[in-house]
Automatic annotation (TrEMBL):
Coiled coil: none annotated. SUPFAM superfamilies: Winged helix' DNA-binding domain. The keyword Ion transport does not apply. Keywords: DNA-binding, Transcription, Transcription regulation. Residues 228-244 have a biased composition (Basic and acidic residues). Residues 217-244 are annotated as: Disordered. This is Winged helix-turn-helix transcriptional regulator. Residues 11-109 form the HTH hxlR-type domain. It comes from the Bacteria.
């Protein structure tokens, strides 16, 4: 963030916001957590960000040492953006922010989910079970085209996500982002198949993966606290308490 728009405070929180507090910055970080991306890939993942805004964020993050630009060797021979080692340290912060915000229901405008965001949910909320055998999967999210192809390897220790799918996966899951998100935590594939998903190979590997992804849901007490807080904010001030 340019110095003239900074908070000018020595507090670590303020200094951090000076670096990643500008609009789109943390979402750029989110999109690079699973690996490097081209500018066009970032545009696809952040469709409402203007090219100028995206360019500005990438330049500012690069100047701050969070992101770097790199030229891939042939046959790729394209420029990509990737997180530096310091930038990768933002992952637990981004994940914690996302988990905290799950207590707030999405608005009618908050519908789009990027492919990487959906796959980060698997890596973040996969609950490993020592007795559960591991497997490798290829996941294709049809609504994201080539950007929606991923490799997933889950073990008793956790889930690994990569943009490069395995050559011989135990199973291939072809579905949409919405159907995948709806299937998290489900021990039955019937709903996923009814939504038009195709499973090639071992369906048990798909079932084990999805059943182990437990995205936190707001508790009833959290919803009630939010409702009470909203109602309190809407009430007119108590004039009696303002009498001096």
């Amino acid at each position: 963030m340019p110095a003239q728009r900074g908070y000018r405070q020595a507090c670590g929180i303020a200094r951090g916001l000076d670096i990643v507090g500008e609009r789109w910055s943390l979402l750029v970080v989110r999109e690079l957590l699973l690996g490097p991306k081209r500018f066009t890939d970032l545009q696809q993942a952040l469709p409402t960000a203007s090219p100028n805004a995206l360019s500005d964020r990438l330049r500012e993050l690069a100047d701050a040492g969070v992101v770097r630009r790199r030229q891939l060797p042939p046959p790729g021979n394209v420029r990509v953006y990737e997180l530096t080692a310091w930038g990768r340290g933002l992952e637990p912060i981004v994940v914690a922010l996302g988990t905290w915000a799950l207590a707030a229901p999405p608005t009618a405008e908050q519908l789009f989910v990027s492919a990487d965001s959906a796959m980060l949910a698997i890596r973040t909320y996969f609950v490993p079970t020592p007795q559960r055998p591991g497997a490798t999967l290829r996941i294709e999210l049809r609504d994201h085209g080539p950007a929606g192809v991923f490799g997933v390897r889950f073990t008793p220790a956790g889930a690994e996500i990569a943009h490069e799918p395995p050559e011989e996966p135990d199973a291939v899951l072809i579905t949409t982002t919405d159907a995948l998100l709806a299937a998290f935590g489900d021990d039955d594939l019937a709903g996923l198949v009814a939504a038009g998903a195709a499973i090639i190979g071992d369906p048990e590997a798909v079932r084990r993966l999805l059943a182990a992804v437990h995205v936190p849901a707001p508790t009833e007490s959290t919803r009630n606290r939010q409702l009470r807080s909203t109602e309190a904010d809407r009430r007119p001030p108590d004039r009696a308490r303002n009498v001096t």
